[in-house]
Write a structure and sequence with these properties.
heterodimer; A: about 525 residues; mainly alpha; three-stranded antiparallel β-sheet; about 0% strand; B: about 475 residues
Chain lengths: ~525, ~475
């Protein structure tokens, strides 16, 4: 039975030049000098392969003081086991503690006897992470209905901020220490940072590799405590087995490109909640300034992914989906919008906050657009009395009923008075409904009508726009008179608008509906 | 064990499909409540296959001449024995109100094995076509157990499943109707098996097709995927070698007509819906009150829209529930009472929505409005007799009526909601009436008048 490397070697540290050339330093980021002494110390060791039979790639060894070894031993003592903290987590933490000490050259100065055991530290970390996750930042976005017919998602964004504290982008950069790290004055600055990050990343992944190799070495050595750990370790290496618990992210970069996960996410590539909050602020700011949907959408997707892998389900999650839905709605990206809506519906059912009435109203309007009677019936079935009193929901229901009864007069009045961003949804079927209304007017009226009348009834902004609409559908022959006195002859438009109406209702383009 | 196998042998001897199916029921017969329990206890996991084979007889005493047929039935009964154990276990847990694991899911999976064994026997041609009622039983209870399994899952896990693994979004797409959707897939397998049977029609599994189609409809309605049902309708329609529907058992016909009617109803094809539902009502047994009530629930709104006629109290009389649903609406439509109609629709909304007839009934308001406008027309009276007309000349109703008259009537009828009603809206509603052919004539906007068609044709179908 062999012992773990740090228990095998003698604490005596003498230089042995014969093995000075050994360059393989695996697993520890210790300063070069220290490693050298450690590596050379193997002469006196009792059983080490590296010293007794030189290999092409000899293995490096470090020496540990008795204190450190005791500490390790205590960590794996069965008495020290804390339920819920697995052996490999302890191992990992232990390695990082010792590594840290080695890197900072405090191996000998640390009071190992009094240092809390790794599992204790893990426990504390978890508590901290938990507390961090549950902190509710005063960002509850309460959207008050606005008289504006059509609002930009930006309005909604800024309104979502707590009024008392200015949003990050209104603060000066020294108030927000991260600000200067985010937006770069010059391209070089950005490049430099980029490089630095890449380097950091390379380093960490190499570090990861080394750890991995070390682990394997331990395993082959049949350590007394590794017999039961080997199975779970295999599970960890197997990408098919999805970890049960949430990932706790450590990534500090605000921006991250979206990539579909094919294996368990690495904590260093996942941003923890406080970073994600800053990311959201940054994205809101960028959206306002640059209006680059491709970029923002991609960033939102990675933001959503990070929330998911960390099992973060709270008001912030709801806010992220709401904001992404609004932006997608504004840009007409119905696929992404529908994804967000589906998520929001489930999140709202958990009472996490947000603006359920606003998005319920959008749902109703969307089902009007898709002529989806089955889903509409389901929505109506789920409505509560409270829901129906919410202004946005009440508006959407009125729109629905006006259309069901062919009351285009009321419908266009409601269109001009749509709360939140519902007008973006209504725009998707406004043309169709205008054609339906035209078909009604043409058939119902016997004598020529002033164009002003049609403009007002169909909610056009001007007579010109109305005339253009009629003209677009081949109704040039309907006009009589000139200037302010332009009139429309309904009898000539009956067939024309009836066929246009039928064609418009025949097909509804549905994207990404679930 | 002996008793079940005894009955099985008798049914085999009599070639009685339904008796055969009864031996595979997961519900004990009324006169032998402990049958399943006794069957479950009569053997064990180790001996079950041998016991059943023994009970079916060997050599000269064998029930079946073919070895393969015997094997196939042994498979079915072994699966059945296992399923019975799991079902009893789940029922016990339910009665104790204490579930330990996923008892109903286990029971569902076990029952699925029974269905699979049956499908396998049929697909391989070991079972004669007259045994298809066994698959009816299989499919029917598969659906029942799926609903129980899904309910147990939702009860224990909550309605929303959150992503545990690599998903991009917090809420996983896992479905709350997982097992029931699986049922739909299994039923689809049976459906294709029956539809694809190429045996001569007198000995064909095609005779089971409508039973399975009905089960599929039922399942699709429950999981809210009525579009899948439309596909079934299309498939059946396109299948030219299927015997005429009239030649199938009446029970299958009636249920099929009902579901087809409801599918067309939901698709807003009210004319087709009316035909199917009327057929279903005629076919339906006069004492099957619940079924007749279901058919009428859809037929009445259908009739209202296609022919603008209301149910009589004689029709509604035997069905107090339907009377409560439709009578208030019918009264308001008759009176042309818009406020009353809106109130009746709102008060019954929950029930209407549940039955998926709200969106259809809502359009009944048009008829109420038509009746109101018709009253205005009638109250306008007749044109004064012209000079030179013979004294016995027929009186002519006034055909030019001021818009303000209609405006006032609609306003009054709408009660409180009518206070903010402006004339343009009334004009719009009238244009809509004309567009829908509920009223004949035209609006003269500039003169503020409505010109109605003369000669008692202003409101088609109402005599004036």
């Amino acid at each position: 039975m062999s012992l773990p490397p740090w228990r095998q070697v003698q604490p005596v540290q003498t230089m042995h030049t014969a093995y000075n050339t050994v360059g393989a330093r695996r697993g520890f980021e210790a300063p070069q000098a220290i490693t050298h002494t450690h590596m050379a110390s193997t002469t006196n060791s009792m059983s080490l392969s590296a010293s007794s039979e030189p290999k092409p790639v000899p293995r490096a060894k470090m020496t540990w003081s008795q204190d450190v070894r005791d500490y390790v031993q205590r960590s794996f003592d069965t008495d020290a086991y804390i339920p819920g903290i697995e052996r490999e987590e302890v191992e990992k933490k232990l390695k990082s503690i010792i590594n840290n000490a080695a890197e900072t050259d405090t191996l000998l100065t640390t009071n190992w006897a009094e240092l809390p055991l790794p599992q204790k530290l893990i426990q504390e970390d978890r508590k901290l992470a938990l507390a961090r996750n549950s902190v509710v930042y005063g960002q509850g976005s309460s959207l008050t209905s606005n008289a504006d017919r059509k609002r930009k998602s930006n309005d909604a964004l800024s309104e979502g901020q707590d009024r008392r504290s200015p949003p990050p982008w209104r603060q000066t950069s020294n108030q927000n220490p991260l600000e200067d790290r985010l937006t770069f004055a010059t391209q070089e600055q950005a490049d430099r940072l980029d490089k630095r990050q890449r380097k950091l990343h390379d380093k960490s992944s190499k570090y990861q590799n080394d750890l991995e190799r070390r682990k394997q070495r331990f395993q082959s050595g049949k350590l007394p405590w590794s017999s039961d750990g080997s199975e779970s370790r295999r599970a960890e290496n197997n990408p098919d087995i999805v970890p049960q618990g949430p990932v706790i992210g450590t990534c500090q970069t605000l921006e991250k490109r979206y990539l579909r996960l094919t294996s368990a996410p690495k904590p260093e590539a996942v941003r923890p909640l406080p970073v994600l909050r800053k990311t959201l602020d940054l994205l809101k700011k960028k959206w306002k300034e640059e209006n680059n949907y491709g970029y923002v959408c991609d960033q939102f997707k990675s933001l959503r992914q990070d929330l998911t892998v960390q099992h973060i389900k709270e008001e912030f999650t709801v806010n992220v989906y709401e904001i992404h839905a609004r932006i997608a709605l504004e840009k007409g990206d119905m696929g992404e919008y529908n994804q967000c809506q589906t998520q929001l519906r489930a999140l709202y059912s958990q009472n996490l906050g947000g603006n359920p009435p606003e998005f319920l109203a959008y749902r109703i309007l969307y089902f009007i657009h898709t002529n989806n009677r089955t889903s509409m019936n389901d929505v109506l079935a789920d409505l509560t009395a409270t829901d129906k009193q919410q202004p946005a929901v009440a508006h959407a229901l009125k729109v629905r009923s006006a259309l069901a009864l062919g009351n285009y007069h009321k419908f266009f009045q409601l269109y001009l008075d749509t709360p939140n961003m519902g007008a973006y949804l209504m725009d998707m079927f406004i043309q169709r409904e205008r054609l339906a209304a035209m078909a009604n007017i043409m058939k119902g009226h016997g004598s020529s009508l002033r164009i002003r009348y049609i403009t007002e009834e169909l909610g056009f902004e001007s007579d010109h726009e109305c005339a253009q609409f009629i003209s677009d559908f081949g109704g040039d022959g309907l006009f009589t008179g000139t200037g302010d006195g332009v009139r429309v002859n309904p009898k000539l438009g009956v067939v024309l608008f009836e066929s246009a109406r039928a064609a418009a209702f025949r097909k509804v383009d549905i994207k990404g509906q679930i | 064990m002996d008793r079940i196998i005894e009955e099985f042998k008798r049914a085999q001897h009599d070639s009685s499909g339904y008796d055969l199916a009864a031996t595979l029921s997961p519900i004990p017969p009324l006169d032998d409540g402990g049958r399943l329990y006794a069957f479950s206890k009569s053997t064990n996991n180790y001996a079950v296959a041998g016991d059943i084979r023994d009970a079916l007889g060997r050599g000269r005493n064998a029930t079946f001449s073919s070895r393969a047929e015997t094997d196939a039935w042994v498979d079915v009964f072994v699966a059945y024995w296992k399923a019975v154990g799991d079902i009893l276990n789940a029922e016990e847990a339910q009665n104790r109100r204490k579930f330990i694991g996923n008892e109903w899911t286990t029971a569902y999976d076990a029952w699925k094995d029974v269905v699979n064994a049956l499908i396998k026997g049929h697909a391989a041609g070991h079972f004669p076509a007259w045994t298809i009622p066994c698959l009816y039983t299989g499919g029917r209870y598969l659906r029942v157990f799926a609903i129980k399994a899904d309910k147990q899952t939702t009860d224990t896990q909550g309605k929303v499943a959150f992503t545990d693994g690599l998903g991009d979004d917090v809420v996983s797409s896992a479905n709350k109707n997982e097992k029931l959707e699986d049922t739909a897939r299994q039923l689809m397998r049976i459906f294709s098996l029956f539809l694809g049977d190429r045996s001569p029609i007198e000995d064909s599994r095609k005779w089971g097709i409508y039973y399975i189609a009905n089960l599929l409809f039922k399942t699709h309605f429950k999981i809210n995927s009525i579009n899948l049902s439309k596909n079934i309708l299309r498939t059946l329609h396109a299948q030219s070698d299927l015997p005429a529907l009239e030649r199938f058992p009446k029970a299958h016909q009636t249920t099929f007509k009902y579901y087809a009617g409801v599918i067309f109803f939901l698709d807003e094809d009210y004319i087709k819906a009316e035909n199917y539902l009327t057929d279903a009502l005629v076919l339906c047994h006069k004492d099957a009150k619940k079924n007749r009530e279901l058919i009428l629930t859809y037929l009445i709104p259908c009739h209202l829209l296609t022919t603008h006629t209301l149910p009589t109290s004689a029709l509604l009389g035997p069905y107090p529930r339907l009377e409560a649903l439709f009578q208030p609406l019918a009264m308001c439509i008759k009176r042309g009472d818009l406020a009353g109609y809106d109130a009746a629709l709102a008060s019954g909304e929950a029930e209407f929505v549940k039955r998926r007839i709200y969106l259809t009934l809502e359009r009944g308001r048009d008829i109420a409005l038509r009746n109101l406008l018709r009253k205005v027309y009638l109250s306008a009276g007749y044109e004064p007799p012209k000079e030179g007309d013979p004294p016995d000349a027929p009186k002519v109703r006034k055909s030019r009526i001021a818009l303000v008259d209609f405006h006032a009537a609609v306003r009054l009828s709408m009660g409180k909601d009518g206070e903010s009603l402006d004339q343009e809206e009334v004009e719009c509603l009238m244009a809509n009436m004309i567009y829908k052919n509920l009223m004949k004539g035209y609006i003269s906007h500039d003169h503020g008048k409505v010109v109605l068609q003369k000669g008692d044709k202003a409101f088609p179908g109402t005599g004036v």
